Fold each of these.
Amino acid sequence: MRKVIQTTTLFVSIFTIFIMSFVTYLNQDIPDSFYVYGNQQFRIYQHSQVSVEEAGNEKEVRAEANTSATKAVNLKLLGVIPVKTTYLHQAEERYAVPCGTPFGLKMLTAGVVVVGLTPIDTETGSAYPAKNAGVEKGDIILSVNGHDVSSYTELSQRINDTKGEPATIQLIRDGQQMKVSIQPVKSLTDGAYKCGIWVRDSSAGIGTVTLYDPVSGDFGGLGHAVCDIDTGEPLPLSSGEVVPVTILDVVKGTAGTPGELRGTFLSHSVVGELYTNNETGVYGQLKSKPVENEPIPICLKQDVQTGAAQIYTTISGTKPQIYDIEIEKVNLNDHSPTKNMVVKITDSKLLEATGGIVQGMSGSPIIQNGKLVGAVTHVFVNDPQRGYGIFAENMIENFSDIASEEAAGF
């Protein structure tokens, strides 16, 4: 009998530990808040074992139509064990055109990005003015002695104008503005006063348009930031242009070696402007509709499901094609706004042509059950058939931050 009791106690203890560990996982994985549309019933497809109860103990939770109220709801495992309280924010249902078209981008930075520090040869030997002043790789230099700088030429001129007098540099580091004092030195090479900084002031490349609003002309693409190749940090955008692109060739991806789309700018004509470059993509306005597709609903993150889906992407010319993929995993937490899904290319034609996900496909829209779910963002270097995707919800939120703030949004 004692043995039976001991065995039962051990089993109950293990089961309790398992349940509590699972509740802890759910608490961390499920966000503190969600958007809901109209009178849509709220549920979390990724956690079907979790039931939802309104604060008033109603069994079904629906957002009240035509109100902007926020509701608190209780989530329970198997309808019994409390997991957490989360909040529902009502939003107007959004629609956007899924694109998959390639585009060229030309960016000028706001300030100049420090990509390296270098010694200056002087009459007395090597000097490190910038390094000694505390300038670091990745800093964004905004001005010299109160004069704005937006290019390497402007920075060099302002430093030379000091004639060796201390210069006050205003810069941004980790999102915080600060000032440093630099003592320029006279270069033995050309007699100019320098401070030993390598900077970048522009960038250009090819990406894929994810979504487009035909009413406002707003668009979003890439699904991740345009980053400096040396620092890995997002480039601060001063201004940018969108130009037409045609895809000419594909370098097929293999394990350990990512592939890429190779294309060329079709002309010097500008078809749009860039307004924002942040961790979820690039955003701006286009002068015309990039594809003839009709707008479809934006899928909210709690409605994304594992299983079959499709992407629109262009691997030749200018017109996107539809290819089959599988959404293998959905990550609801907010820790990484660009790695919300793990996707796998399953379409044999796309695999034959590209080997999977390749550079340049970032931004390719993901469609599931007639809704825009998100976009492809990254490739797994050692497994090019797989990669990450971002929720469309995370991208559409940025539309209210660009030119047409009058559009209904989250």
Amino acid sequence: MAANGIIELSDSNFDAEVMKSDVPVLVDFWAPWCGPCRAIAPVVEEISASYQGRLKVGRLNVDENQQTTMKFGIRSIPTLIVFKGGQAVEQIIGAVPKGEIERVVGKTL
């Protein structure tokens, strides 16, 4: 886990960290070359801190983890998906304001 509380996800740990989680998980599908992904990174970190204990937050580099990326049909990044009980329940595509992410996360808690 990174110092900011965000879990670095991969094809190998995705099921254990996300699909089998006891709490909802916000997953940030991103890539290092993606400007909008870098722009929302601080917002995702703030949400991780704000919802600590109630929400798990992870990031998955789509370039390095294509199996999971394809499994969830990720075609645009950044894409944020909230998983609850092993199911994708909410999705946001693109860099959106913090309030929009909080609204979507709030529906799943």
